[in-house]
Amino acid sequence: MMHPINIPGADRIRAKTTKWLNRSRPERRAPEQVVFTNADGSTNSAPALQGVACVYDKLFDFDGRTVMFAYGCFGNVYDPGIERQLLFDHDAGNVIGTTVDGLTFANSPDGLVYRLPLAGNARAAEVKALVESSKKACASVGCRIAESTTTIVDGETVDVITKAELFETSIVFWGKVNGTSASIVDLSRVDADVRDESKSLDFAIDKLASNMATNAKHAAHQIALLNEAIGNYEAAPAQRATSVMPATIARWHTAETEARQAAVR
């Protein structure tokens, strides 16, 4: 009979390794001290991240094709045996929380909604900063398409996803499907069921505020890119003789020039 070989210090090394691995998982790190406040200035002692993960029956472009998620296509969202994640930017190594941490999903009239409690969450400070600054106030889903069909909408071929298996949702700066959202709520002030809450006026207002803030930030980002492109074009006169200014930039450049001339007059 063989006896186990005991290596001096092995248990201590194993314990330290396990501790390091647990600490390296983002959602398991010790939470930072962060204070959440409500719109009226009161302390939010039960913060949660909530919003629309995917909008149903809305056309969007994906790899050059027009696609649409059909209502209720994520039929497995109520299966408690499937662990799902909430991520930053679809990065599997950047986990905010999972269904083990209280992440829930539900089908609403508008789309797939989600909610994750943030009290004690190690990424709460990051989530708060990114959502409130509108840097990540949209959402996007990660799924496996199980069934789809093709139809014609206004003369355009559309791939309709009728069944999909959801495995993660991410908060992002700009999602593929317009109308998604990410907001911080106080669980003591909302319906305990996220599906019921999604029908409320407060949910609609939060979604609208999230969309408006994101659209404004995205527009500002696009303007900055256009101005940068114009600046690069103006700074390279030798290249202008052999190149053509893109039509979009040309229209913007003309408008900017006329505005400057009008200001001088």
Task: Describe what this molecule looks like in 3D.
This protein has 265 residues and is of the alpha+beta class. The chain has a single domain, classed as Serine Protease, Human Cytomegalovirus Protease, Chain A (Alpha-Beta Barrel), CATH 3.20.16. It is 32% helix and 29% strand. The chain has six helices and twelve strands. It has helices spanning 10-24, 124-132, 194-197, 201-234, 237-240, 247-264; strands spanning 36-37, 43-44, 47-55, 60-62, 65-69, 85-88, 95-98, 104-107, 111-117, 138-153, 156-172, 183-186. Strands 4, 5, 6, 7, 10 and 11 form a six-stranded mixed beta sheet that branches. It has a four-stranded antiparallel beta sheet with strand order 8-9-3-12. The protein has a two-stranded antiparallel sheet with strand order 1-2. Strand 8 (104-107) and strand 9 (111-117) form a beta hairpin. The longest helix is centred in the last third of the chain and has 34 residues, at 201-234. It is globular.
Q: What's the structural blueprint in terms of helices and strands?
A:
Elements: H1 10-24, E1 36-37, E2 43-44, E3 47-55, E4 60-62, E5 65-69, E6 85-88, E7 95-98, E8 104-107, E9 111-117, H2 124-132, E10 138-153, E11 156-172, E12 183-186, H3 194-197, H4 201-234, H5 237-240, H6 247-264
Parallel strand pairs: 5-11, 6-11
Antiparallel strand pairs: 1-2, 3-9, 3-12, 4-5, 6-7, 8-9, 10-11
Keywords:
32% helix, 6-stranded mixed sheet, 265 residues, 12 strands, alpha+beta, Serine Protease, Human Cytomegalovirus Protease, Chain A, 4-stranded antiparallel sheet, 6 helices
